[in-house]
Amino acid sequence: MNYYNYFTEIEEHFVKRRGKHLLISPMDWGLIAAWREAGIPLHVAIRGIDIAMDGFFARQHRGNAKVNSLCYCHDAVMAEFAAHVEARVGESLPDTRNGSGDSESAPAGNEKANIEEIAGLVGERIREIKELLAKQYPQSVVEGLQRVLSRLEEVLQIRDAERIDLEALERDLTLIDDLLVAELRALVSPEETLEWEQEAKKELKVYKKRLPKETYDKIRENFMRDRIHRKFNIGEFSLVRL
């Protein structure tokens, strides 16, 4: 299973089933990441979505009721995963973090990638970091941004590669983004942080009702990360939206 496909196939299937052709939210992408990290195979996630949506449409709803969040399907997906695991008790289970659930490991490190497209994303982040460095920030923040810049420039060496490990590259970019967000978070005022927290609480209300605390906290952190990116005009580090 191509690293990208686990995300894009779930998104496309959910959008098609709900009948509302809008891309899912960044919070829903965080939920997909949580499913993948839990080892839920793609076909199990798809089946859970189908069960949840079939149940929704089987009930009578007033007006043009729609399912607005992938979170609506979470309980059904987890129930299907529990049934999937129980049915395979005693088997030598594969590592399903590749999203396939197949007995063979997915060739995530051997697939041909669009290297120039990825290099373009990294190059754009480098440009944005350089713009930040042109501003007046505390020396400790400047040093942190320079470390981020240096690591991104190392990643840009993928231009010399014929094949790359997409999953490993995604992990590297996530770690670099973690470093960037940690540096920029120090520049956000307590008042603005509180405002974001209140906004997150309101927007993620549906998630808190349905998700385990650990999963909810991860999605909430992604929400705060997104606000920091917006404040400092930094684009996404993740490859899954390419």
Q: In words, what does this structure look like?
A:
With 242 residues, the chain is mainly α. The protein has helices spanning 3-18, 26-37, 42-58, 74-87, 115-133, 139-155, 166-185, 190-203, 205-210, 213-231. The protein has two domains: 3-98; 115-231, no CATH class. Helices cover 64% and strands 0% of the residues. Helix 5 (115-133) runs antiparallel to helix 6 (139-155) and helix 6 (139-155) runs antiparallel to helix 7. The longest helix has 20 residues, at 166-185. The chain is globular, with a radius of gyration of 20 Å.
Index terms:
242 residues; mainly alpha; 2 domains; globular
Number of strands: 0
**Class of secondary structure makeup:** mainly alpha
- Taken together, the total number of domains comes to 2
Low-confidence stretches: 92-96, 100-113
Instruction: Give the oligomeric state.
Output: single chain
How many H/I helical runs? Answer: 10
Globular, elongated, flat, extended or rod-shaped: what is the shape?
globular
Q: Write down the overall mean pLDDT.
A: 84
User: What is the CA-atom radius of gyration, in angstroms?
Assistant: 20 Å
Percent helix range? 55-70%
**Termini gap:** 17 Å
The ordered string of helix (H) and strand (E) elements is: HHHHHHHHHH
Work out the strand percent.
under 5%
